[in-house]
Amino acid sequence: MVLGLLAAVLDVAAAEYIGEETCLVCHQVSGEQFGHTRHAGAFRTNAQTELERRVCESCHGPGSDHQLDPTAPGAIVGFSSDSGDLEQQNGMCLACHQGGGRTHWAGSIHEAADLACSDCHNPMVRVSVDSALRVSSINETCLSCHQQQRLEFRKRSHMPVLEGVMTCADCHQPHGSPTRALLRGETVNQTCYECHQERRGPFIWEHAPVREDCMNCHRPHGSNHESLLVTAQPFLCQQCHMQLRHPAALQTPGSLPGANFDARLGNRSCRNCHTQIHGSNHPAGAQLMR
């Protein structure tokens, strides 16, 4: 079945397999570098299928045409940006790496952006500890394209990605997921709850914007405000709670003639009193104060 899929991808019925030994006559350096990789260990010493036993030709396809004319374009499958059909390149990888984390690759934002497997992975040289990445780590792989997120991770309050405490793949599934942002959870909240389980609830007294979406109040990557907030307190709370129980001077200190700064806006502002901002299980916690 796998070889049938491979033939359909390659459309090289006339080409023949020539074996790894023939390839290494010219590609000695590549063969030595490849020998340190996970793919080499699988193909050379623990092949499970007929395709894996082909070693070089498992990924590059039958090499007889390439042997006859090494400069002929399309004689074998190449994996550089100018090597030809992107669908053909990715099809070679997916011939083995189907299912699992690749279940939602088709139609994903990375697939729609014409991203090749080889844009992130390099199975020929062991550069990274795992995942056959082109650079040293998952984070560096992602941030090589996602420069805005790199900037956000350098802000005052941020997810500890640059410190190596977590990786982009802890929250995102780079090979595709049912969500637009390639989240591992079904929603933003489900993804956040994987680490912040104390925020999950259920609570007797719930805070509506918290239940709706964590990103109503927090930025996912980094912020110059405490706790990754989208804006500073009390202005964050005032986006919803204008003129509620408190006088205008408290709501907009200094913005009205004669208005004085209210002491209740110091320190943690609204959270000086409303401490259980994510929800409360106290019978008297209707105002999220207990």
3D architecture notes:
By secondary structure, the protein is mainly α. The protein folds into 4 domains: 111 residues, no CATH class; 31 residues, no CATH class; 30 residues, no CATH class; 80 residues, no CATH class. The protein contains 15 helices and 4 strands. The strands form 2 sheets. It has a two-stranded antiparallel sheet with strand order 1-3.
A few lines on this structure:
It contains 15 helices and 4 strands. The protein has 290 residues and is mainly alpha-helical.
Helix and strand topology:
Elements: H1 2-10, H2 20-26, H3 28-34, H4 38-45, H5 56-60, H6 64-68, H7 86-94, H8 109-112, H9 117-120, H10 138-143, H11 147-152, E1 157-158, H12 188-193, E2 205-206, H13 208-212, E3 222-223, H14 235-238, H15 248-251, E4 279-280
Antiparallel strand pairs: 1-3, 2-4
Helix pairs in contact: 2-3
